[in-house]
Amino acid sequence: MRKRTVTHAAVALAVAGVVAIAGTVVAHAQEPDDDLAKALDTILEDKRLDDSQIGVVVAEAEGNKTIYDHNGNMRAIPASNNKILTSAAAMDALGGDYRFDTDLASKAKPHNGSLRGDLYLRGTGDPTMLAADYEKLAAKLAKAGVKKVRGDLVADDTAYDDVRLGTEWGWEDEPYYYAAQTSALTVAPDEDYDAGSVIVNVDPGAAEGDKAKVTLTPPTGYVEVDNTAKTGGETDLTVDRKHGTNIITVSGTIAVGDETTSEYMSVNEPTGYAADIFARALKAKGIKLTGDIRLGETTPSGAKTLAERQSMPLSELLIPFMKLSNNMHAETLVKAMGREKTGEQGSWDNGLPVVKSFLDKQGLSTSRLRQADGSGMSRWNLIPPDQFTTLLSKLRDAKWFDTWYKSMPIACEPDRLVGGTLRSRMCDTPAEKNVYAKTGSLTSVTALSGYVTDADGRELVFSIVTNDYLTGVKDIEDKIAVTLASYSQGESLDKDGVKVPQPEKEAPSGLECSWVKPIAC
User: Fold this and answer.
1) Residue of higher predicted confidence among 68 and 503
2) Any signal peptide, and if so, which residues (predicted)?
């Protein structure tokens, strides 16, 4: 193992490559991976890393023998590498067959086309519920002969608590879909399953000076649009959501004849959003609601299920979750774990201990790390790189490992649901289709942790976590990963270092590339 940090005791014993043992001077033999260590040391001499904090650990996947360690025990903000912990714990605690349920229930029975009582829409956190799925629930109710609900529509989101945002999430991220609120009832506007968000579409008017046209996907009256955008000039639009409201402002200009500009925005209080979408679905299916919409009340005991819908299994949900680094999936899974294991409302307070218990069983030193949420959006998360490599090595023994492993982004796999956030990185290198790793991005935070097979066929685990840099350093991560993929024991690496092509499109600093729509990677 090559360590960059040398203790004073070791320095006292080691001078000019010799050590004293029982009065005899013995020369050091070169360790098998010294050439690799030298190559990695050279990469880390990059001036962009001056005054930053970087930890790098490389280990053999079988047995977790460390072969390179640079600040591996340094606590660092992991960004979306936090999802490695959450996803693995969810597979252990919930199982790959776990599904989220959404149903309709009432204490009243349909009679002569009427349901004389309140109708409960009850959720358990399904992040994959589209407007079309709410329409299917309404269609099932219509098929049962219901034409009128003589009562209120009650949105039951009590499977989870009402804490919507994670600890220490940046307020500046709050309007955007990647920082959406977590609720047991929610809506996704697309098949990336970006739960709790709405797509704001802006089109130019017919002529210069005309007001821009704004539509929402899915259509909803729950969100109000304040549109002052005009047609003409260059396209320069700003879309925002006022704090604590569902007023979305659209301002600026859009060029005549320009294509649609779409922005994905979070919705305040997703439970009400889901209720609005379902109420619209009832109307579309010819079912009249005579009462009001109420939020956050528990379905009464004795209520009978009238229609239900199950999500895809967790084993399938892992794909959009991990490949596209979906924050809402992570937070939903934390609350689902808490609910399943405690029998109480799902919450961060009872879900995160489930993750910790899992990590303890994997042999991690959980006293050395802190997990504040499931996604990594919180800057309170602190995880040393050597804990990632320990976990990555240990997970290979899990019965569900193959399913989980395939959910990792893959270097230079062009399909976005295969390559994910790595689909444009490390192309035309030995790392292409070889590196399976989770990316992570926040402002001045980047991380890459996962698996790679070297030139000898040896499977390695690695973790690279960098904090406090001023300019982009993701190519340094790529150089390290490509070096690992290129390395053969006993053969010197190119003294000029590896060459890493730059992606054609890059996300703004601090964002996962999959968070930029249309996708930047």
Assistant:
1) 68
2) 1-29
pTM: 0.92
Contact 287, 263 (CB under 8 A): no
Domains of the chain by start residue, with CATH: 2-6+32-96+316-515 (3.40.710.10), 101-163+270-311 (3.50.80.20), 197-266 (no CATH)
Three-state secondary structure readout of 206-271: CCCCCECEEEEECCCCCCEEEECCEECCCCEEEEEECCCCCEEEEEEEECCCCCCEEEEEECCCHH
> What is the total residue count of the chain?
521
Give the pLDDT band (50/70/90) at residue 15: very low
* Pairing mode, strands 114-115 and 148-149: parallel
Cα torsion at 269, 270, 273, 279 (round to 10°)? -120
Contact 184, 158 (CB under 8 A): yes
Element containing residue 19 per DSSP (H, E): strand 18-21
Which residues are CB-neighbours of 53 under 8 A, at least 6 positions away? 71, 74, 76, 466, 467, 468
Q: Which residue has the tokens 């892992």?
A: 318
Measured over all CA atoms, what is the biggest interatomic distance in the chain, rounded to whole angstroms?
100
Summarize pLDDT for 491-503 with one digit per residue, the tens. 777 766 777 887 7
The 10s digit of each residue's pLDDT in 302-316 is: 999 999 999 999 999
How confident is the model at residue 500, as a pLDDT?
82
Active site residue 183: no
Backbone angles phi, psi at 156, to 5 degrees: -95, 100
Choice among 87, 114, 266, 325 that is catalytic:
325
Residue 107 known to be catalytic: no
Of the candidates 80, 266, 424, 514, the residue annotated as catalytic is: 80
Q: Is the peptide bond before 320 cis (omega within 30 degrees of 0)?
A: no
Mean pLDDT (the chain, rounded) = 93
Give, for 338, the enclosing helix (H) or strand (E). Answer: helix 327-342
Q: What one-character DSSP code corresponds to residue 71? A: S
Active site residue 325: yes
